[in-house]
Amino acid sequence: MKSLLLMIVFFTRIPIKYKYEYREDDLKRGIIYFPLIGLIIGALIWLPSLSEDFLDKPVIILISWIIYLWLTGGLHIDGLADTFDGIFSNRNKDRMLEIMKDSRIGTFGVLGIIFVILSNLVISFYIDYRFLLLLPVVGRTSALISASISQYARKEAGMGTTFINNCKLKEVLIGIIFTLTISTLIINYKAGLITLITFILVLIQTSYIKNKINGATGDTLGCIIEISQTIFIFTAYLLKEIII
User: Fold this and answer.
1) How crowded is the C-beta side of 102, counted as CA atoms within 13 Å?
2) HEC profile for the chain?
3) Taking the domains of the chain in order of start, what are their residue ranges?
């Protein structure tokens, strides 16, 4: 339970008072709960859909994504921006990592944020609300997949070191099984196809990033989360006629 609470405090703004002293071992054990954190976030951003009798869908979608950004504190969006600035700078590995560590945001970071947020807002209008519930689960399992096949790219320890170094096959398999099960229960077994397509594309994204910086960082995992979520709902949009 301590590990779960730590993960909620660490990765969300849900107001939970964590009374225990921080220990890295608790964070290591908490990795397995990452998809569950996604489900909690998903349930909260799905809640506005219950007001569809009173609010128009564009307004509901906007509220849902505002809630998402608040819940995550923009943590993964920040990782997306840093990764875009570094990866697309066309510099060498060390310089890319320096750019990613810089607190200032560059052109590619801004473009990445705009692209992802606009895509999420537009695509969400055309899909079933239930995909919003699944979306954060898929995103966080995607991070597990990416971390499990990567090594930490920096010489010095950083925010993602513990996560990347301790995410193994066990955590990935549990995450994938959990995500596929939730997808089937919430929508149907065909929704699992969208999830699997997303995970395959996550492997391709991870391979691309690894070729650039020889590993992964906390920023790249945040980027994977955000991009995989957009891929997930875009694939749901493309295949919605055969799924529902």
Assistant:
1) 15
2) CHHHHHHHHHHCCCCCCCCCCCCHHHHHHHHHHHHHHHHHHHHHHHHHHHHCCCCCHHHHHHHHHHHHHHHHCCHHHHHHHHHHHHHCCCCCHHHHHHHHHCCCCCHHHHHHHHHHHHHHHHHHCCCCCHHHHHHHHHHHHHHHHHHHCCCECCCCCCCCHHHHHHCCHHHHHHHHHHHHHHHHHHCCCCHHHHHHHHHHHHHHHHHHHHHHHCCECHHHHHHHHHHHHHHHHHHHHHCHHHHC
3) 38-243
Task: Give me the residue label for tokens 């955000």.
Answer: 226
**Which among 118, 158, 128, 147 is positioned nearest to 205, based on CA atoms?**
147
pLDDT value, residue 98: 92
pTM greater than 0.70 (yes/no): yes
**What is the model's pLDDT at position 151?**
93
The pLDDT of residue 242: 67
Give the C-alpha distances (Å, rounded to integers) separating 154 from 23, 93, 208, 225, 227. Answer: 22, 10, 17, 20, 22
Residue 237 makes CB contacts below 8 A (sequence gap 6+) with: 123, 126, 127
**The pLDDT value given to residue 215:** 93
Listed as ranges, residues in the chain with pLDDT below 70 are 18-22, 241-244
CA distance 232 to 198: 6
pLDDT of residue 191: 85
Tell me the per-residue pLDDT of 77-122, one tens digit each, with 9 for 90 and over: 999 999 999 999 988 999 999 999 888 899 999 999 999 999 999 9
